[in-house]
Amino acid sequence: MNLADHVDHRPFPLPEAPWVMHQAWCDFLFLHWPVSVDEIRARVPEPLELDLRGGQAWLGIIPFHMTDVRPRGTVNLPGLSAFPELNVRTYVRYQGRSGVFFLGLEASHRVAVETARLTYGLPYFKADMHWEREDGVIRYRSARTDRRGPPAVFRSVHKPVGPFRYAEPGSLEHWLSERYCLFTCADGVVHTTDVHHLPWPLRDAEVHIEENSMALAHDIHLPAAAPHAMYSPGVDVLVWGPRKVEG
Questions:
Q1: Which long-range contacts (CB under 8 A, 24 or more apart) does 1-6 make?
Q2: Which conformational region is residue 176 in: left (phi greater than 0), alpha (psi within -120 to 50 degrees), or beta?
Q3: I need a surface site. Which of 13, 30, 160, 195 has the fewest CB within 10 A?
Q4: Threshold 0.90, pTM exceeds
Q5: Contact 61, 107 (CB under 8 A)
């Protein structure tokens, strides 16, 4: 299947430039909490606008693992094309587009961390990470080892439950999951990176969080309530190179 032929679900057209990388995002756990707008605003640089839902900011903590990571026209390389990752993200708008803003990204592979920092300007950190699945239950752990950021730990046990579904447009599930670009900003200059995939196949998730200091590592306080949780087996993804957004 040619992913680039399936675009009816996208909120904006594909870039005219060719995609540069293929990835598969697997066993994706969407965990989201409503959080303080002021705390998020302090972490998101101008001129990016906060993308709010009913006046509320949201923070996502997303553990998953990557496979089939390869530049266009190449094949998988042992030890380089598959590794765990965990993202801490919120949502922003710029020039009419909604997208993702990453506060931090953990990965277990040093080359991936340094390449993403250099190429995409993303705040990646090296972490000691492990995941395993047994009898449908997924155990996940991540402990940051990178000294460029404060300590941050995440440990969970979770399992998908219930039938598959696709998020209804206009729903909170759709707003949290169906995002097709990310933004970075340095010295007031905004860059965007486009991604493309089919709509997320989703299930409910039963989650037990054993330890979580990911938000506090970014001076953000999570509410005591359980997170909004969704599981997806994953999607194949096309990734473009970053491009400067003219102001």
A1: 3/196, 3/197, 3/198, 3/236, 3/238, 4/196, 4/238, 6/198
A2: alpha
A3: 13
A4: yes
A5: no
Cα–Cα distance, 171 to 230 (Å, whole number):
13
pLDDT for 142-165, tens place per residue?
Answer: 999 999 999 999 999 999 999 999
Distance CA 165, CA 146 (A): 37
Helix, strand or coil, per DSSP, at residue 46: coil
Which residues does the chain have with pLDDT short of 70? 78-79
State how far the Cα of 152 lies from the Cα of 126, in Å rounded to an integer: 11
Q: Write down all domains in the chain, each with its CATH number in brackets.
A: 3-10+20-242 (2.40.400.10)
Report DSSP letters for 177-207, one per residue.
H---EEEEEETTEEEEEEEE-PPPEEEEEEE
